[in-house]
Design a protein that fits this description.
Structural class: alpha/beta
Number of strands: 15
InterPro entries: ER, GroES-like_sf, NAD(P)-bd_dom_sf, YIM1/Zinc_Alcohol_DH_Fams
Strand content: 15-25%
GO molecular function, one term: oxidoreductase activity
Organism: Podospora didyma
Distance between the termini: 50 Å
CATH architecture of the largest domain: Alpha-Beta Complex
Protein name: Enoyl reductase (ER) domain-containing protein
Order of helices and strands: EEEEEEEHHHEHEHEEHEEHEHEHHH
């Protein structure tokens, strides 16, 4: 007998799909996800917001009807037994590229794909964080040459005695510093105490990168000879977020025994035949869901040590997906974010409790699920709409809150004006991945 309540009344849900053949995107009906059909240890998440990144709609997939959007923010509405992520918690994260995306009202996420979201950010801002921030983090500290500070309270250049001494000697170059990964990279490098950070970006984005207060120098990436004066001193670490000619030029300014990583295309593919210092190494990796890293990023955001930049013009309702995709294809800086399901999660949480939730006597991290659980009452013909709280029925809402022990979810805080200020789109967008691999993937050390 399945542990999942298969007798839940049908819910009218809509997801965003992409047609692989016609290269189009459309809204269509979807089902409430059943973790027992794919991964019994998965949590069911009510998706409040989802982010779409440049080039994502062209990524290869094995699904017949792929759903885009791999980073999300929302509520846990059902969890495996003994999971610390209990129903009602506000979470954010990103899910595997091998699975369906999260542009749907309810999705599935494993333990390592979940994290308590930053406390002062809106749903839209939280959804915009995971992939860009994790890619930058892993590129700099897991595959680059920067050392990760030992403790959370050491991530600040104010007290340099707490920072890794090796970082203070590092010259760091970050290209495409205004993009989805670059904007996080300059901030993380600065908070980890990188000695000198040079950031390049389109001329129209120079004020934005300077506003991050992270790079020591911000240069127009199109200016002739903007890196020539570094031809002698050179950089110990180069993180390229552009590819093409920018990446080829970056190879020539890497210090001997230095390291160059690109998240736009494998750096080795753009290595010039001459002018490269001896001993320069490179690598290619696929960004992975790392809960401890996402927790650290949330902490730094809560401390105000990182900013979560999101242009307010890049936020849309999912029903307005056509305008959102036009914005994404226009070369706007950063991703677009879709509001998906902003409803009160308590009715669905109560519905899952009534019909039986995933429970197991085994540890929830163990393989498999308990097959001996009751399915719940199969005779209830109620529909989700019968349980949705009417905003005018205040007494009923208070009684439900008292009965469930869940507090009404607070309204999303207004985005900080400095983060969501309107900016003009750049003259160009980061170059696409010629290998048809997600721009967030970078692999095996060369």
């Amino acid at each position: 007998m399945s542990a999942w309540p298969r007798s839940i009344p049908p819910l009218e849900l809509t997801a965003l799909y992409r047609d692989k053949v016609n290269k189009t995107v459309y809204l269509g009906p979807t089902e409430f996800p059943d973790p027992t059909l794919s991964e019994p240890r998965a949590h069911v998440i009510q998706v409040c917001a989802v982010a779409l990144t440049h080039g994502e709609l062209d990524w290869p997939t094995t699904h017949d009807r792929p759903i885009p959007g791999y980073e999300y923010s929302g509520y846990v509405v059902s969890a495996p037994a003994h999971s610390p992520f209990t129903p009602g918690l506000q979470v954010y994260g990103h899910t595997s590229f091998d699975c369906l995306g999260n542009a749907r009202p309810y999705t599935l996420a494993l333990f390592q794909e979940l994290c308590i979201q930053p406390t002062h950010l809106s749903w839209e801002q939280c959804a915009n964080v995971p992939l860009g921030a994790l890619t930058a983090f892993q590129a700099l500290f897991d595959h680059g040459l920067l050392e990760r500070p030992a403790h959370t309270d050491h991530w600040t250049p104010i007290n340099k005695r707490c920072l890794p001494e090796s970082n203070l000697q590092k010259l760091t170059l970050i290209t495409g510093a205004s993009g989805e990964v670059g904007a996080w990279a300059v901030q993380l490098a600065a908070r980890a105490g990188a000695g000198h950070i040079v950031a390049t970006c389109p001329a129209s984005d120079v004020p934005f990168v300077r506003s991050l207060a992270a790079a020591h120098e911000v240069l127009d990436e199109a200016a002739e000879g903007n890196l020539e004066r570094w031809a002698r001193s050179k950089f110990h670490i180069v993180l390229d977020c552009v590819g093409g000619a920018t990446l080829r030029a970056a190879w020539r300014v890497v210090h001997a025994e230095g390291r160059i990583i690109s998240v736009a295309t494998p750096a080795i593919c753009e290595k010039p035949p001459r002018g490269v210092s001896p001993g320069v190494t490179t690598g290619w990796f696929i960004v992975t869901a790392a809960q401890n890293e996402l927790e650290l990023i949330a902490t730094l955001l809560n401390y105000g040590l990182l900013r979560a930049p999101l242009d307010g013009d890049n936020v849309f309702d999912m029903e307005d997906y056509e305008r959102a995709l036009e914005r994404l294809r226009s070369g706007s800086r950063g991703k677009v974010v879709l509001r998906v399901n902003m409803r009160d999660p308590r009715p669905v949480i109560e519905l899952l409790k009534e019909y039986g939730s995933i429970e197991s006597d085994n540890d929830w991290l163990a393989d498999g699920a308990d097959d001996d659980m009751d399915d719940g009452d199969d005779d209830d013909d109620s529909d989700l709409d019968d349980l949705v709280l009417d905003g005018e029925e205040e007494e009923e809402e208070e009684q439900m809150g008292a009965a469930t022990g869940l507090q009404p979810p607070p309204p999303p805080p207004p985005p900080p004006p400095a983060v969501l200020e309107r900016v003009e789109p750049p003259e160009r967008m980061d170059q696409g991945n010629p290998l048809a691999i997600p721009i967030h993937t970078v692999g095996v050390d060369q």
